[in-house]
């Protein structure tokens, strides 16, 4: 809000301000703009047109994600594909089979199977070299889309 408080010190009282106070006019204009935006009719067309029928195939469900879990304890390194423990040397082949089971629609397409994203869940205390070993075994089988999963602790 603009305004000028004058006077003070001279002892003559308030000075006359000849500038118009436009702030109330701007407020009114903004309120009118909002009213017109809400009340404005949505454009409609009155011309009748014979529209063609659309034949859209329903979208396919996204493939079920394939998870690799890695942890280490006193017994050594444990690698799981979904819920099954596997030997790290068999990781690529077992992951390939798991992707086929998770997405039967692409079961016969080798390129699509290797193009699927693989998610790795590794224990926070696990040595980084073990995660890299798991990633290397997956890349040996042709999986290049690999995601690392972390827990969101903001909540």
Number of continuous helical runs: 4
- In spatial order, strands of the major sheet run 3-2-1-4-5
Please state the average pLDDT score. 86
Question: Mind describing the biggest β-sheet?
Answer: 5 strands, mixed
Helix and strand succession?
HEEEHHEHE
Q: How many E strands?
A: 5
Give the radius of gyration. 34 Å
Given helix and strand content, the structural type is alpha/beta
Helix share, percent: 25-40%
Q: What is the terminal-to-terminal distance? A: 42 Å
Strand content: 15-25%
- Enumerate the spans where pLDDT stays under 50 for 5 or more consecutive residues: none
Question: How would you describe the shape?
Answer: elongated
Characterise this structure.
- The chain starts with 22 loop residues before the first helix and ends in a 6-residue tail after the last strand.
- It has helices at residues 23-39, 91-102, 110-114, 128-141, and strands at residues 66-73, 76-81, 84-86, 118-122, 146-149.
- Strand 2 and strand 3 (84-86) form a beta hairpin.
- The protein is elongated.
- By secondary structure, it is an alpha/beta fold.
Helices and strands in order, then pairings?
Elements: H1 23-39, E1 66-73, E2 76-81, E3 84-86, H2 91-102, H3 110-114, E4 118-122, H4 128-141, E5 146-149
Parallel strand pairs: 1-4, 4-5
Antiparallel strand pairs: 1-2, 2-3
Helix pairs in contact: 2-4
Structural features:
155 residues; alpha/beta; five-stranded mixed β-sheet; 5 strands
How would you summarize what this structure contains?
With 155 residues, the protein is α/β, with parallel strands linked by helices. The chain is 31% helix and 17% strand. The protein has a 5-stranded mixed sheet with strand order 3-2-1-4-5.
